[in-house]
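S1.2 Input.
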Amino acid sequence: MSTYTIDSSTSRATPVSAPMKRVTIPAIRARKTGGAGGGEPLVMLTAYTVRMAQLLDPHCDILLVGDSLGQVIYGLPSTIPVTTEMMEAHGAAVVRGSYHAAVVIDLPFGSYEASPEQAFATAARLMKGTGAAAVKLEGGTAMAETVAFLSRRGIPVMGHVGLTPQAVNALGGYGARGRSDAERQQILEDARAIAEAGAFAIVAEGVLAPIADEMTAAVPVPIIGIGASANCDGQVLVAEDMLGLFERVPRFVKRYGDMAGVISAAAEAYAGEVRARSFPTADQIYLPKA
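S1.3 Output.
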């Protein structure tokens, strides 16, 4: 629940008063559906700014402050250059702009892999600095000890297996994972390991659909798919991809709008009116009082 009071007369960022409690981490864990025919799937989208959080929050169970902000917001070539400072600033903005969804924040590359203690220091900083409810980290069996370390110390952890963007250099690209039997077995082992270590939910990215189905049936915590299977316990997309703000998106994205076209058309109309001196009109200027 937001604790910020913003003067609506001076700020565009005007969160509504909280009409309900936030979705809790135990409530998310309890939303395990087990696949097709189960309960209502979890809805998760990324958010990086106050305004986007305000617009997405009523429709989502989880808002993810993803390190994908490196590409979406900063134009970086991958998530690898993203810093803890970036995550903290954007995480705080999303918490301020939301009141319903649980906010989960990514631990950026290089901020948690060295040791469980390093991961705890980063996670504690981000949770204290943003108000987020949980953190997300990438990796399977290699990160199980870290997941357990954080969970025992009161930090809820969402896992991430399959295509792990922070490991793109080691993986050799962004292709789907699980095409060999060995890779399939490793993905399933990764999911089981971090679930047993205490992860409350796991993102399965870019894995073959049969593997995602098997994982969803076998692992006792919610599996949230992205480029996985409709039978997962939930789904997540990068909001800007889903809204049609980029020309090129991964195959697994469905565009639900053409916001790039809307913005471009509005900018074109504005530019034309400015050049024709038809904007501003009397409605948009200040005149002396009579």
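S1.4 Remarks. The CA atoms of residues 37 and 198 lie 26 Å apart.
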